[in-house]
Every structure is written in C-alpha cells, then in structure tokens.
Design brief:
This protein is of the alpha/beta class. It is built from 15 helices and eleven strands. The protein has helices spanning 21-33, 53-62, 81-94, 109-114, 122-141, 177-186, 199-215, 235-245, 257-285, 308-313, 317-344, 346-353, 359-397, 402-431, 436-468, and strands spanning 9-12, 38-41, 68-71, 74-75, 101-104, 145-149, 154-159, 170-172, 189-190, 224-228, 249-252. The strands form two sheets. The protein has a nine-stranded parallel sheet, with helices on one face. It has a two-stranded antiparallel ribbon with strand order 6-7. Helix 2 (53-62) links the parallel strand 2 (38-41) and strand 3. The longest helix is centred in the last third of the chain and has 39 residues, at 359-397. It is globular and about 75 Å long.
C-alpha cells in the first residue's frame, strides 16, 4: 500500500477531432470554468483527422485562465527535442506558467515513417527519449549552451533558452521495465493509461519506479503518479487508486461538456473528500489503524432514524450544500475578475471595434461569453436539482419549512432572470448595442442577488439537510 501524499488533481482528455474543433474548445473551457486542473491532448501528427496538438494547446491556453495544458503524450520521433523544448517554454511564458510536458517514445512506427520520421526499435526509442530529456532540460535552463552527443540527438553549442515561466514537469508514458526505470531516475511524473496498465499492475510498476528513484538518490514521491482512466470510473475507485497505489492525477476521456461538468462537480470533489478523510484517519490513528467501515462514507440519499449512528452517517448533507455553494462563490469571484479585466481594457476594445483586425476584442468577449455561459449553466443546473428533488423532499419531511422553500423558489426565478440579463449584456457588448457599464451593472446585481440567496439558503436549510438528507 503506497500513498505518496500528493494533492489530488483532475483533468480531461478530449479527442482533438478536427471535425469537432468547436466542441474540443468548449470542453476545454468547461474544464477551466469548473475548476479542473488539466486539459491534455493526444499527439499523433500523422493522423489527418486530428488537430495539431501544440496549436490546439496554444488556443486552449489563450481561451482559459487557470487550467494547465499538456500533450498526452508528445510524439518525440516527429517533434525534435530542441523545437519541442522551445515550444513548451514559449507557451509556458505566454500562459503564465500553465504548461506541462507529457512525453513518449512514439508508437505506430509505420505511420511515423510515412510522415518522414525515424523507425526505431524499443531499445532505440528508449535511448532516444533519455537523450531528448537531457536536451530539453538543457534548453530550459536558459543558461550557457547545450551540448548532447547522443546516438539519436546531437546538439553542440546550442544557446539555451528561453527558460519557461515555471519548472515544467516531464511526465513519461511508460510500461516496460527499462522505461519504468528511466521514469524513476529522470521524470517528474509517470503517465500510464488504464487500458494498458490496469489497477492490478500498478503495484509492481510503482515498485520498479520507486526502486530506480532511490537508486538515483531521489525520493520516490518526487515522481507524481498520473493516470489516464477509463470512462465511468467513480469516486470510490479513484480514492482506492490514490490510497493504495499513490495515483494522484486522474485524467478522463470526455466527449461532451456534460462529461466535463459531471467529472468536476460530482466525481472530483467526492474523491477528494474520501481521500482526505482516510488520510486524516491514518494520521490520527497511525498507518496500522483499521480502515473505517464502511470505507466509503455515505453523505447523501439517507433518511433520518432514531439511531444515533445513522444520524451521524448523514450529517454531511448540509456540509455538501455549503461545499456546492462555495464552488458557486469561487466561480462568481472569477467571473467578476474577468469582467474587471474587460472593463479595464475598454479603450483598447473600442479601438479594436473600428479596426479591420478585431481579433483581440472578439477573443476577449468570446472568452468572457463562454465563461459566463458555463457558469450560468452551473447555477441553473444546481437550482433545477433543488427545485425538482431536494425541495419536494424537505416539504414532505418538514411542513414548517414551506415559507422558506417558497421564498427560495421565487429567488431562483429572479436569479434566472438576472442570468438572462447577463446574456443580453454580453451580446450587447459584442455587437456594440451596449457597453461595459451595462455589463458591470448586471454582474453587480448578479453578485448581490446570488450571494444573499446562498447565505439565506445555508442559514435555513443546512440544519434541515443534516437531519433529513437530500432525498
């Protein structure tokens, strides 16, 4: 049993389908809005149906604010390490330090050769990867010159730089013993896929990485364990992977914005809660303390009884409401920050409207519009769940709550109207029918209305939810 204690992270893995480019960007923006950590993209430059990975990651980075981007994994045989290093460092500088580098030896050698790349044996590919890592890190040092006299990559007296904005992590997609040892010696992260390395195989692979890390004088915890998971995985399985095998970054293949939102709103927070609870239990009782029963704590869908133990089991329902509300508050704060940036750039946007090239203004407003669209969907979805499920349950459980629930339902209608006004203000800003003062006014009204609503709802419903649960 190995838990390296890493903070959990969650990301997505959309297919870079050129025929669905808009959807790929929408899913990436939804990941950013929803508070996920990563957007990763596979890299097969020989695939005519795929968007180019680095171009796509650059656009994703430009249209997002906090999410990090990475190839999953970069195709080394078709991306020379000097160019790859400078591409990653440049995007890291332009994005404010939001780039990581997934790196692989390459596969599908017929396709690589057809695209003009080398055909390598497994041993040659591993040697080439090790040489490439030396070249890449030399370029990123930003100091002096880089010289690597390798079998596959020879660099002599190359000026290093640019240095990236932050220490970019190199994450290796590795499965075979030699690659696992290389990962332990040199990499910042291990990035396997569940389809090629199932949960039952992780212990042995982790052990090989750990042994190589210790042999190189490294702490095995210096290697983050990432995992491309299969669709449909739940919090319980992810928590077990974290606690038993040390996997700490989970990357999900997604095909819709809804996939992204569900992963961010349901799976990620539930997984974090399970892992945090178990880590706290272990810290309090020691590593040999018996596991809590049941291992997965039920926080919703419970009904009150007179039994004290059952009452404790559903005591987290009110806390769950507060957690959801905290997410709404954080997203609202980010939305206000983006609006303030647009307002601060109003003069530049005005000039851009009168210019032939309106790309900057359109990009700023489109990004803001996409952000608000996703945020509005989140708020509306949360309120819809309450109106359809939670409130009827509470009415049945406690008729005295009727006046409170009536008020909350009325406020949902008001908030919905303000969200519609926000859409109108964004349309007006893009078309020139209205300006940033109107947008600011609507955002201010949304902030006041929503924050007051959330506060009142918590004051009135948290005790009831702790008593009756959600359903």
């Amino acid at each position: 049993m190995t838990d390296y204690g890493h903070q959990l992270e969650f990301g997505i893995f959309p297919t870079p389908d050129a025929s669905a480019a808009d959807l790929v960007l929408q899913m990436s923006e939804a990941a950013d809005v929803s508070g996920l950590d990563l957007v990763t993209v596979q890299d097969h430059p020989y695939n005519a149906r795929h968007l180019d990975t680095w171009t796509l990651l650059s656009v994703v980075a430009a249209r997002t604010t906090t999410v990090r981007v990475a190839p999953n994994v970069a195709n080394l045989p078709l991306r020379p390490p000097v160019v790859l290093a400078r591409s990653a460092a440049t995007l890291d500088l332009l994005s404010g330090g939001r780039v990581e580098l997934g790196l692989g030896t390459g596969a599908f050698w017929d396709a690589i050769a057809a695209a003009g790349g080398p055909r390598r044996t497994p041993g040659e590919a591993t040697t080439a990867l090790e040489e490439a890592i030396e070249v890449i890190r030399g370029v990123w040092s930003g100091r002096g010159s880089v010289s690597v006299d390798g079998e596959h990559y020879r660099v002599k007296g190359l000026h290093a730089g640019p240095a990236p904005a932050h220490p970019i992590g190199i994450w290796i997609g590795a499965y075979k013993p030699r690659m696992l040892r290389l990962t332990g010696r040199l990499a910042d992260g291990w990035l396997p896929s569940m389809g090629y390395a199932g949960p039952s195989e992780l212990a042995a692979m982790n052990a090989a990485i750990d042994e190589a890390a210790r042999g190189a004088g490294r702490d095995p915890a210096a290697v983050r364990r990432l995992y491309n998971v299969d669709p449909g995985v739940g919090p319980e399985q992810l928590a077990e992977l974290a606690l038993q095998h040390g996997m700490s970054t989970f990357i999900l293949p997604v095909a819709s914005v809804r996939d992204v939102q569900r992963f961010a709103a349901e799976v990620a927070p539930a997984t974090r809660e399970l892992v945090e609870d178990e880590r706290s239990r272990r810290a309090a009782g020691g590593a040999d303390a018996p596991a809590a029963e049941p291992a997965v704590r039920q926080t919703v869908a419970v009904r009150p009884t007179d039994d004290d133990g059952a009452a404790q089991a559903h005591a987290g329902a009110g806390a769950h409401l507060v957690e959801v509300h905290d997410g709404l508050r954080a997203e609202l704060a980010r939305l206000r920050d983006i609006v303030e940036q647009v307002v601060a750039g109003e003069e530049q946007a005005h000039r851009a409207r009168n210019a032939i090239n309106e790309l900057t203004m359109r990009q700023n407003n489109w990004t803001l519009g996409a952000y608000c669209q996703q945020y509005c969907r989140f708020v509306t979805g949360h309120h819809g769940l309450e109106d359809r499920s939670v409130f009827p349950h509470l009415r049945r459980s406690d008729p005295d709550l009727a006046p409170v629930l009536d008020r909350l339902e009325q406020e949902h209608v008001v908030i919905h109207d303000v969200l519609e006004q926000l859409d109108d203000a964004l349309v007006g800003l893009v078309t020139g029918a209205s300006g940033t003062p109107e947008l600011q006014r609507v955002v201010d009204r949304l902030s006041q209305t929503l924050l007051e609503h959330l506060s009142f709802e918590e004051d009135e419903l948290v005790p009831a939810l702790d008593r009756y649960g959600f359903y």
